Amino acid sequence: GDSVTQMEGPVTLSEEAFLTINCTYTATGYPSLFWYVQYPGEGLQLLLKATKADDKGSNKGFEATYRKETTSFHLEKGSVQVSDSAVYFCALSLTRGNTPLVFGKGTRLSVIA
Amino acid sequence: GAVVSQHPSWVICKSGTSVKIECRSLDFQATTMFWYRQFPKQSLMLMATSNEGSKATYEQGVEKDKFLINHASLTLSTLTVTSAHPEDSSFYICSAPGLAGSEQFFGPGTRLTVL
Question: Would you call A34 an interface residue with chain B, using a CB distance cutoff of 8 Å?
């Protein structure tokens, strides 16, 4: 079946450090890929997305490139801030609209000053 | 962007009572909505797919008689936890797909605590 695997946390970084959270997927078709962020006590917010191979999604300094050859969608940020502390979820969707997302297990990021 | 709201944002109830959680799409229509459950420090677990005008589709292992879902209109789905027990305490999140693409819009979640 379709699945998403992301690196296990927690990840603890110092402020201004470089961040990479690995995400790989298994899918029978050509999925759209997403990164969602969940701040403490809140719901999920879309961080960025990519809908086809070689697309790069970016938002708030975060980037991820859809790599079909390695079935990956790694999340990166050049310089993290304390406010980036949250749980990050990688997800995929195979069809448009009325199907749920398939989520990875989430990676908790803590950034310390 | 599209907005999904949930009400209440948190609720505390006694064991044996029923609790209703509402999920609304505020500026778009959603014939389908999804209900997830999230335990502390864990990922989202899909519970059921709510379909406007028809019965919900439940994931394996989810008791449909305990978690009643009603999709009353194109903008409202409700999840009722019947005869709640402490093990039902969790964070419940709904989502709705947008009009274009495969993106989902998530509600802010409802934290249920059953005493």
Answer: yes
Q: How far apart are CA A73 and CA A52, in angstroms?
A: 11
Confidence of residue A2 (pLDDT cuts 50, 70, 90): confident
What is the rounded distance in angstroms from the CA atom of residue A71 to the CA atom of residue A74? 10
Return the residue in A98, A99, A102, A110 with the most chain B beta carbons within 10 A, the one to mutate for interface testing: A98
pLDDT at A97 over 60: no
Q: What kind and span of H or E run contains B112?
A: strand B110-114
How far apart (Å, rounded) are the C-alpha atoms in residues B54 and B44? 24
In the numeric block, the tokens 């997800």 are attached to A91
DSSP string, A9-36: S-EEEETT--EEE-EEEE-SS--EEEEE
The predicted-structure confidence for A65-76, as pLDDT tens digits, reads as follows 999 999 999 999
Give the C-alpha distances (Å, rounded to integers) separating A39 from A42, A87, B4: 6, 6, 17
CB contact under 8 A, A41 and B49: no
CB contact under 8 A, A49 and B34: no
Name the region of B42 (left: φ>0; alpha: ψ -120 to 50; beta: rest): beta
H or E element in which residue A50 lies: strand A44-50
Q: What pLDDT, on a 0 to 100 scale, did the predictor assign at position B104? A: 86
- In this predicted structure, what is the pLDDT of residue B8? 96
Dig out the tokens for B56 from the structure: 């919900």
